[in-house]
Every structure is written in C-alpha cells, then in structure tokens.
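The following block was generated as part of the benchmark described in Methods. Ligand: adenosine-5'-diphosphate.
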Amino acid sequence: MSIFEVEGLHASAGARDVVKGVDLTVRSGEVHVVMGPNGSGKSTLAHALMGRPGTSVTAGSIRLDGVELTGTPSWKRARAGLFLALQQPIEVPGVLLEAALTEALAGRSGASQEGDGGQSIDDRLKQEAAAIGFDERFLRRPLNVDLSGGERKRNEVLQLGVLRPKFCVLDEIDSGLDVDAVRAVSGRIERATSEWGLGVIAVTHFHRLLRELRADKVHVLVDGRIVATGGPELAEELERTGYGAYEPGA
Ligand SMILES: Nc1ncnc2c1ncn2[C@@H]1O[C@H](COP(=O)(O)OP(=O)(O)O)[C@@H](O)[C@H]1O
Ligand SMILES: [Mg+2]
C-alpha cells in the first residue's frame, strides 16, 4: 500500500501564482477526480506534481511514501513511481515508443526488462495496445509523431499500462477521444486500480469518464484552491449546474 500526499501546495506558472494551497491524499487503488473551470489551475497543478519545467512550487510538499519529491527532477519522480499524462502530449521525433519505454523500465529501481510473468516489453505493448484499441503500427513510430489528438491520448494510457506506476496524474485524458475510446481508456485505468493498485488523480471536464472509472472522491478546483470535495454525485451535479455556485463571489 502506497500513499501520495500533497500538502499546502502553492505553484506558479510563468510569473503567476496559479495553485494557491492544495491538499490531497491518495492511496493505492483510489481514484480522485479534479474538476474545475478553464484556467482554474488544473494543468498547473498536474505539472507541479510531476516537476514539469516552467512550473515552480513556491510552498508546500509533495511526498510519495513519505519521500519528499518537491524540488526533484521529473525523472526522479518517475522512478519513484509517479506518471503524468499531459493534456497535450508532445511529439518526440527520433525516439521510438518502444525504446523510450525500455529505457524508462530499465531505469526504475528493481525493475527488469521483463514484465510480470516474464512478458517481454514487446508483448506488453501489444497487449496494452489491444486493450485500448491503439493501432499496433504506431508502436514503431517516433513518439506521437503524426498521431492525432485522440491517438496521442491513447498512447499516454498505453505507456501507463506498460510502466505500471504507483500513481498517475491524468490531465484531461478523455478530451479528444470519441465515446468508444473514452470507454476503453477509462476501463483500462479502472482495471489498473485493482491489477496493481494504481492510485489515480484524474483531471476532467466530463462526467462520462466516470462511467467506467469509479471515483472515490471528486474535488472542485476554483482559482487554484479545492473549494469542495464529494463523491461521484458531485461530478453529476457539476455536469448539470456548472461551476457557477463555486465561483469566487458566488
Ligand atoms: N506559463 C505560463 N505563464 C503565465 N500564465 C500561465 C502559464 N501557464 C498557465 N498560465 C495561466 O495560469 C492559469 C491556469 O492555467 P491552467 O493550469 O492551464 O488551467 P486549467 O488547466 O485549469 O485550464 C491560466 O490563467 C493560464 O493562462
Ligand atoms: Mg488544463
């Protein structure tokens, strides 16, 4: 059982304070959903958790199993078991998906190049690709190059399935996906919570992600702060009523 703790987190993007005191505790197997209006700081929060350059933490703490991650480079956080799926995954020309994943797995402490049950990375890639309807031809391409928005999102989930991190931060993993793809992707993530106890922080605008992915907690982020926390019913309410009731001054 692992624990991911965010305490009193303040973070800036560029010169602006965007995340203004966020507390979150996620345990293995739990799904926490973060919803909020455009510009409320969801992506900045996601980037700060992974230590993405361009975002800086100005106060607070990010810990995985008690180990402080704040101030450490992204690759160390990845080795510790954290994974970030970007809202807009970038192209990495010249780097093949399989090569990137082989390196990432080899770099993790205690990880071998073999998957569970002695599966090769190639077999794992194929298995994960099939699970989410990701065309196998893309496995031989440079990372995300010439992939559509929806294919890139699926590629993030494919990488998640092969790397099996302890915790993942998914920034609008459902945006740009058609209905069938949302079902496949959210179903894969839900299975991961029991398969290896993946803990999930999922940023989304849409309740439809939560049909297959069962949320333990839903948090509403407005102006860099969590202003409400509830169960899946909160996501349904937001879908109906919007964020008006939570906006500053409401
Ligand atoms: N690099 C940056 N420089 C300045 N402002 C930024 C930068 N990145 C994001 N912002 C601003 O921070 C706010 C929050 O952005 P973001 O975290 O992307 O919101 P969300 O993901 O909730 O839509 C927005 O007003 C955005 O314009
Ligand atoms: Mg965003």
